Hints:
Elements: H1 2-20, E1 30-33, E2 41-48, E3 58-67, E4 74-82, E5 85-86, E6 90-93, E7 106-116, E8 125-134, E9 139-148
Antiparallel strand pairs: 1-9, 2-3, 3-7, 4-5, 4-6, 4-8, 8-9
Amino acid sequence: MLSLVILVSVLTLANTAANDVQKVSEIPISWVNCSTWTDQLSIEKVEANQWPPKRNELLTVSVSGTAKESFIYGNYNKTIVYRGYSLPSITGSLGDLGVTLPSRPGPLKMIIFNSTIPEVAPAGNYDIYVKASEQDHFEILCVKISWEL
């Protein structure tokens, strides 16, 4: 009988704890679509593996949406801004963001940030600007993500 009472108590506590856990997808990420009206990707969702970012932990941020056109190739430019000061930009091919090229119109997901926040990262406000353009230099997307460390 005592075992049954303990089991019921443990299950009740486990259920309460499970209900208190918030899914990462439910945590609001501070982001802005900085694209122009000619952008080639309608951004529908920005997701992260954890939010807010933490030192010494991997942060992966992805953007999902609907591509309006096909892309044969393209490039991105990623800039991290700390307290208004830009760090050196990172540039590369759309393939580096997990995009299979050539792409087709329809659902598209890009991993726009995938890095461990270093222990020595100073506290403060951070912004990441990611801009991508396709082979004809038309903007695919521009997204700004902000957080405080």
